[in-house]
Amino acid sequence: MSIFSNQESDRKSIEQALEIIKADYEQQKQEIAQRDQEIVRLKERIAQLEAQSQGEQSQETPTPQCECEQEPKPSIVPDAQSIDYTKALEALTASIGELKAQQDELKTLIGHRDIQDENMRAMHKELERYKGDFFAKVTQPYLVALLDLHRRFFDTYSHFDQLDNTATDMTELYKNLLNEFKSAVDALSNQVYNDFGVEYFTPEENEEFNPKAHKPFNVIPATTPEQNRRIAKTYYGGFRDVDTQKIIRPARVACYKWEEPTE
């Protein structure tokens, strides 16, 4: 399997993971919005109960009047047994209990929201780490290939730079230099083939021109009609995927073109 099929599989896995995370995120946003509404409702209810409790206390505690400003009037003191303090106390106790229960529920909702926020931060952090690992995994083979190519060229340069040019046959030196570069190119082609599943191909002379695999770099007049749209020369080969035969980079070629002779 080539590197491109592996990258496609990794890309689909990441897209699926992102879709799951997005769906979970939207669901949690809806739950948080619902809980926010519930918190607002509870706060309003608490305010109502507090106002009601203060109103009941103000009604039970009459405002004292200054006896010096008013003439003394005969007052009728009701019988203490005629006022049902038990029911009023029970109602007040029930209101206080309901208020405490709603306060506890409010604290629980706030705790749930804090947990959801922490989970969202953890999921975002994990997603960023996964994306970083994926891109590092994809780019590492390219970096290794470039570093290997750099080492081979540097070794070649260092070797020929240390030679004594005055005592060296320049023809032989030039031939050795070409061999070194040819060896480096072959090694790079093999590494691309083994690591990425990409092969280098060279179109043959007189091969039929293919616009998907060949890029015309020059046009040469054909001498016969049969040569029309045939490869005349290859300047630089192309690259294609080994498994799918998909062209990654077309080869640069010169092709023949036939023109009818004018009378």
Can you walk me through this structure?
The chain is an alpha+beta fold and 263 residues long. The mean pLDDT is 76. The strands form two sheets. Strands 1-4-5 form a three-stranded antiparallel sheet. Strands 2-6-3 form a three-stranded mixed sheet, with no helix packed on it. 62% of the residues lie in helices and 12% in strands. The longest helix has 77 residues, at 85-161. It is built from three helices and six strands. It has helices at residues 3-60, 85-161, 170-196; strands at 198-201, 214-221, 231-236, 238-241, 247-249, 251-257.
* Overall helicity: 55-70%
- Strands of the biggest beta sheet: in what spatial order? 1-4-5
Structural class estimated from helices and strands: alpha+beta
For the sheet with most strands, the description reads: 3 strands, antiparallel
Oligomerization category of the chains in this entry: single chain
Look at the structure and give the mean pLDDT: 76
Count the helices. How many? Answer: 3
- Distance, first to last CA: 58 Å
Number of strands: 6
As a percent range, the share of strand residues is 5-15%
Order of helices and strands: HHHEEEEEE
Radius of gyration: 44 Å
Strand-helix topology:
Blueprint: H1 3-60, H2 85-161, H3 170-196, E1 198-201, E2 214-221, E3 231-236, E4 238-241, E5 247-249, E6 251-257
Helix pairs in contact: 1-2, 2-3
Quick rundown:
The protein is of the alpha+beta class and 263 residues long. Helix content is 62%, strand content 12%.
Entry keywords:
263 residues; alpha+beta; Nucleotide Exchange Factor Grpe, Chain A, domain 2; three-stranded antiparallel beta sheet; 3 helices; 6 strands; 12% strand
